[in-house]
Write a structure and sequence with these properties.
Elements lengths: L4 H11 L220 H11 L6
């Protein structure tokens, strides 16, 4: 029986569930790279705007300086990946595994990181205005100098996170857990901190002007020289922590 090439293609498609495999060598804007394995590969400087990298393997991959604006990396495995200086504007990283990934000086403006796993990740000096980290796992994260103004850290877990000099103007931190965090000189102006846990956090010189602190927990936080001008819903734990700071319990 003579079998045509077209028939063979149809049979292959049926065997694979009707899905054409991604072309993992096609590194261009808008490419379908879903499920591709780029572990320990270099994609530095590549233009992958709008590319589809859902469930891709990017462990230890080098994406420094790459343009991933609008790319879909949802569910990707990017443990220890390097994104330094990359552009991820409006990228989708929801539920991605970003364990110890490095985003220093990257641009994550308006990116979606809902539910992402960022344990021990670095976002030092990162631009992330309008980014959504809601429900993300941020334990031991380094966000020193990040600009997350207008974004969301709602319901995230950020135990012992480092946010020194962070800009969180107008950011929603409702329900987030920042117990034991270091956030000296951070700017929380006009931020929403409903039920936010900052117990035991170091918040020296932090700015909370016009923030909404409804039911926030500042128990035993270090508030030396922190500013609380025109705040809404000042919780008793702030008054108590300030009393500790100026009674000698917290040393300058």
């Amino acid at each position: 029986m003579h079998v045509t090439a077209a028939a063979i293609l149809v049979l292959n498609l049926l065997a694979s569930g009707g899905v054409i495999a991604a072309d993992c060598g096609k590194l261009i804007p808008g490419a379908d790279l879903s499920g591709c394995d780029f572990s320990r590969k270099s994609l530095a400087g590549k233009d992958l705007r709008g590319a589809r990298l859902t469930a891709a393997k990017l462990e230890n991959a080098d994406l420094r300086g790459a343009d991933l604006s609008g790319a879909d990396l949802s569910g990707a495995n990017a443990k220890w990946a390097h994104f330094e200086g990359s552009r991820l504007v409006a990228a989708d990283l929801r539920n991605a595994d970003l364990f110890h990934a490095i985003f220093d000086r990257a641009d994550l403006a308006n990116a979606k990181l809902n539910g992402a796993y960022l344990f021990g990740a670095n976002l030092i000096g990162t631009r992330a205005q309008g980014a959504d980290f809601s429900r993300a796992y941020l334990k031991d994260i380094l966000m020193e100098g990040i600009d997350l103004s207008g974004g969301s850290l709602k319901d995230c877990y950020a135990f012992r996170g480092v946010l020194m000099d962070a800009k969180l103007v107008g950011t929603d931190l409702s329900g987030a857990d920042f117990t034991g965090a270091s956030a000296e000189n951070a700017d929380f102006s006009r931020a929403r901190l409903h039920r936010t846990r900052l117990a035991g956090a170091t918040l020296r010189y932090a700015e909370f002007t016009a923030a909404d602190l409804l039911d926030a927990d500042f128990a035993h936080a270090d508030l030396w020289n922190a500013r609380f001008d025109r705040v809404a819903n000042l919780p008793p734990s702030v008054t108590e922590a300030l009393a500790e700071a100026f009674s000698g319990s917290a040393k300058p």
